[in-house]
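Handout, section B. The chain below has 124 residues.
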Amino acid sequence: MVEKRLADGRRIAQLLASEVDGRSDGVLDTLSVREADREVEPTADGAFAYAIERDDECLAAVYVHPNRAHVELGASDDVVERAESAGLRVRPKATRPPKTLVFVEDGAQVKRAVAVVERAAQSI
């Protein structure tokens, strides 16, 4: 059996956007994808792809790398705990206010990343 892994940052970000915009259950119904750059070119540091907003307030920003995507969220113990329990790589970003970066390194991790975004939306 051949295992196929989706490790294209741009495609991972597109799948994540589809999950956020395409589902209408629970808290996802209140979220939308905004400022999408459809021509974004992945970079090593991560290029801005789009924002995830609720009521015109930015909840998260999604960035694309050549082989993964990352979601930048407000720092929250709840978000970190949810991401770590989902098996996603997480790291703090030392900014003011502090942020949390959640890395989505495979297309199979997209639904887990959506659950983290949901948790972030519930905690604000």
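Note. The first strand starts at residue 32 and ends at 34. Compare this with the example in section A.
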